[in-house]
């Protein structure tokens, strides 16, 4: 019996539902909004939302490339409108972009998450729907507070989280479904990086031996455990190679909207969907050196360490990143560690929210996450 087989048999825990909505390529703007909103309402009854409560919508604004390299702006419009209908007060759409575009240090700031949001359509979507924009770096270096994960022991220092989270009542996470040249995939748990100050990101990349474990553990900081209500990914486009900013964009015949209140269950399905769409990616794209090379991934991580730390000494002493090869969801190191710290592999039940998902696709995804 392999390690993965033992894990699947011994760590299975409680049942968790992930809701799937099908979306056709020719769906109208209105149809897509309604489909996203229905997927959200199936995943949570919004009983946690009291009149005039504040909500942070956390997208992925890593870079200046549009969806699926970043969150679909239509998802933001759909969620802001839905939250307002249900009585929400202040709704903030906030993130902190990647170090390639925003250089954020105690003594220096270069670039702007807000500007990236403007370039990729998220700013206009947010403002048109009645939300407000925030780049976490805008409040300054001191506008972050320390939190330690409540599960796992791989972080040496507390994670520096944006102080806006103390003001906000609830959090909704809107990731994307994408490949990542260093992390192998960029799904829900990886999106936590967007909260962090540069020193926290430095530790993640510098101590790369536990890169994957730290990503999973970061999702157990008290604020996220207490306030995160919903994880929803629009995935009618999938970034199937390279990533996180560039790569092959595949548009399946039937796209998916994936929603759950469990980030682990969500990521199991999102990764299964990413791997399924990689099957239809041209072979020359899949064999691209930048997509598959572990050496390139490690060198890229070293470059990130230098940009983050501004120190060649830190680069020299940084650890090697050993990128994962992903054939199944059970190969993903982030998920494997999440199963340990989130009390096991959830028994995921797939629940369609409309009749647009082919039965064969439902079976394929169910088999991909099966623990039997």
Secondary structure layout plus pairing:
Elements: H1 3-10, E1 12-23, H2 29-43, E2 55-58, H3 73-85, E3 91-95, E4 103-105, E5 108-110, H4 113-120, H5 122-129, E6 132-135, E7 144-147, E8 159-162, H6 164-167, E9 170-173, E10 178-180, E11 184-186, H7 198-206, H8 211-218, H9 222-227, E12 228-235, E13 238-239, E14 249-250, E15 255-260, H10 263-278, H11 283-286, H12 289-292, H13 294-309, H14 312-317, H15 333-341, E16 345-352, H16 359-369
Parallel strand pairs: 1-16, 2-3, 2-9, 3-6, 9-12
Antiparallel strand pairs: 1-15, 4-5, 7-8, 10-11, 12-15, 13-14
Helix pairs in contact: 2-3, 3-5, 7-13, 8-15, 10-16
Please describe what this structure looks like:
This protein is α/β, with parallel strands linked by helices. The protein has a single domain (3-369), classed as 3-Layer(aba) Sandwich (Rossmann fold), CATH 3.40.50.11440. Helices cover 39% and strands 20% of the residues. The chain contains 16 helices and 16 strands. It has helices at residues 3-10, 29-43, 73-85, 113-120, 122-129, 164-167, 198-206, 211-218, 222-227, 263-278, 283-286, 289-292, 294-309, 312-317, 333-341, 359-369; strands at residues 12-23, 55-58, 91-95, 103-105, 108-110, 132-135, 144-147, 159-162, 170-173, 178-180, 184-186, 228-235, 238-239, 249-250, 255-260, 345-352. The protein has an eight-stranded mixed β-sheet, sandwiched between helices. The protein has a two-stranded antiparallel sheet with strand order 4-5. Strands 7-8 form a two-stranded antiparallel sheet. Helix 3 links the parallel strand 2 and strand 3 (91-95). Helix 2 packs across helix 3 and helix 7 packs antiparallel against helix 13. The longest helix has 16 residues, at 263-278. It is globular and about 55 Å long. The two termini are 13 Å apart. The model has no long low-confidence stretch (mean pLDDT 95).
């Amino acid at each position: 019996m392999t390690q993965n087989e033992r894990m699947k048999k011994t760590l299975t825990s409680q049942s968790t539902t992930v809701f799937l909505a099908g979306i056709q390529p020719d769906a109208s703007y209105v149809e897509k909004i309604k489909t996203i909103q229905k997927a959200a309402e199936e995943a949570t009854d919004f009983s946690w939302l009291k009149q005039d409560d504040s909500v942070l919508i956390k997208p992925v604004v890593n870079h200046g490339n549009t969806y699926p390299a970043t969150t679909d702006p239509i998802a933001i419009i759909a969620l802001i409108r839905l939250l307002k209908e249900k009585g929400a007060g202040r709704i903030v759409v906030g993130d902190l972009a990647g170090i390639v575009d925003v250089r954020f240090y105690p003594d220096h700031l270069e670039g702007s998450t807000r500007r990236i949001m403007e370039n990729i359509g998220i700013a206009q979507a947010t403002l048109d729907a009645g939300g407000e924009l925030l780049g976490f770096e805008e409040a300054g270096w001191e506008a972050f507070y320390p939190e330690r994960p409540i599960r796992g022991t791989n972080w040496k220092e507390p994670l520096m989280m944006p102080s806006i989270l103390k003001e906000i009542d609830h959090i909704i996470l809107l990731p994307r479904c994408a490949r990542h040249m260093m992390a192998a995939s960029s799904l829900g748990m990886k999106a936590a990086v967007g909260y962090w100050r540069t020193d926290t990101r430095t530790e993640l990349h510098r101590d790369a031996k536990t890169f994957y474990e730290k990503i999973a553990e970061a999702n157990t900081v008290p604020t996220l455990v207490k306030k995160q209500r919903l994880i929803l990914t629009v995935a009618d486009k999938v970034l199937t190679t390279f990533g996180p900013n560039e790569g092959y964009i595949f548009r399946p015949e039937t796209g998916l909207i994936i929603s759950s209140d469990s980030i682990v269950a969500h990521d199991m399905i999102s990764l299964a969907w990413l791997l399924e769409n990689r099957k239809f990616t041209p072979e020359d794209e899949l064999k691209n050196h930048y997509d598959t090379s572990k050496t390139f991934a490690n060198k890229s991580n070293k470059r990130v360490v230098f940009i983050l730390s501004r120190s060649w000494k830190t680069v020299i002493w940084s650890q090697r990143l050993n990128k994962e090869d992903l054939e199944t969801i059970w190969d993903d190191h982030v998920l494997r560690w999440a199963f340990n710290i989130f009390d096991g592999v959830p028994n995921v039940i797939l629940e369609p929210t409309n009749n647009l998902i082919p039965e064969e696709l439902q079976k394929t995804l169910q088999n991909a996450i099966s623990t039997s």
